[in-house]
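Supplementary Methods. Inverse-folding protocol.

Structures were first reduced to a discrete structure-token string of length 110. This string, shown here, constituted the complete conditioning input.
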């Protein structure tokens, strides 16, 4: 399995046609660098598709996820980047409202 120590979310949309090199270039542009064992998340404009780029210390992995219905809870009124905890990431990839998940999976907002 790939070790991930930190999860970063880019708020601005990414063209889902881009491949690994273009996604890596976007990570460097938005986050300053692709750090080992960090995951970088991007969504398209409609937020129904997501790409995750992970640097494993040797190379990079690029994964894509598409929801059959609905969309990911992607922030629109925030600029820049966000960091997510593992429980928040797990909720996000399922299409759940990850913003409601606090530390250790405690729900803090209804």
């Amino acid at each position: 399995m790939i070790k991930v120590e930190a999860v970063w979310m880019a708020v601005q949309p990414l063209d889902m046609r881009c491949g690994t090199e273009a996604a890596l270039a976007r990570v460097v542009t938005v986050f300053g660098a692709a750090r080992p064992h960090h995951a970088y998340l991007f969504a398209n404009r409609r937020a129904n598709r997501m790409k995750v780029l992970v640097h494993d210390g040797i190379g990079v992995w690029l994964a894509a996820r598409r929801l059959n219905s609905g969309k990911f809870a992607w922030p629109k009124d925030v600029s820049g980047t966000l960091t997510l905890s593992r429980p928040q990431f797990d909720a996000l990839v399922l299409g759940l409202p990850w913003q409601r998940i606090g530390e250790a999976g405690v729900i803090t907002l209804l």
